Amino acid sequence: MTMSNQSSIAEFFLLGLTKDHNVKIILFSFFIVIYILTLIGNSILITAWICDPHLHTPMYFFLGILSFVDISYSTVIVPFVLDQLLHWRATSYNACAAQMYIALFLGGTECVLLGIMAYDRYVAIVFPLRYTVIMSTPLCIILASCCWLSGGLMALVDTYFTLQLPLCGANIINHFFCEVLSLLKMACADIFVTELVIFSAAIFILGIPSLFTAISYIRIIITIVRIRSSEARLKAFSTCASHLIVVTIFYSTAISMYMRPASKASENQDKMLSVFYTVTPPMLNPMIYSLRNKDVKAAVQKLFCRKTLH
Hints:
By secondary structure, this protein is mainly alpha-helical. The protein is 75% helix and 3% strand. The protein is built from 11 helices and 3 strands; from the N terminus they run βααβαααβαααααα. The protein has helices at 21-51, 58-86, 93-126, 131-134, 137-163, 180-184, 192-225, 230-258, 267-278, 280-291, 294-309; strands at 11-14, 91-92, 172-173. It has a 3-stranded mixed beta sheet with strand order 2-1-3. The protein starts with 10 loop residues before the first strand and ends with a helix.
């Protein structure tokens, strides 16, 4: 992924979230707690999914993939941020390009995956008797493959067009990781085509899945309203509300970042938005999607009991 820009700029310095030493200590504590919770929550979910045959269903198949994506996504960004908070030092051009590609790849994969998970819940609630037939194993594998392929393709296109731009001026990125829109602001050439490419990719990877998710949840809510049991209706609404909170945070912040011109963006605003869609969802996803679920709780208890006995 090394481009011609490497001859002019060999390394970057990232300004990070703040220059205040005391604030850096607070942020370091904040990020490391979030990272640890992300690793623990998602690792427990993956282990329970692998070890418990009762969780070998389409829903938990996609949740297991989501947990793997979340761990990877956080690991690409958070340790890098922690290091930058402790030591302000240069990042090589190749390392920055690699981080940018992998973050886009995993973020794009999660965008599509959340849309597919909404469809899975739609089928389970609207067509419960046909759920296992519709969400067959071959279809689940195909849908999961589409997540990875679409994320990888989007990341490749965005990274390629961004790194083709000539960079000039100081080699300082006003962000806490190598984010594609921050590099666009360093370009000393017309970025209209690159912005158009990124916007088009965002429509494909963000716009379509978010619209699909919205439609799925509207149909789910309509179905829930028709449920006669008030207790079952309340339980279903509670689950949907929790899911929608995470989905809304992820999609809304990502859309506000990537579906508007980079030139009109506030750099400080971009940093805050980036925290909401890169750091927070990976921590919240296992808590909201799974760890509140009685099947997952039972699987986790069984898992820990088995380890205790051994």
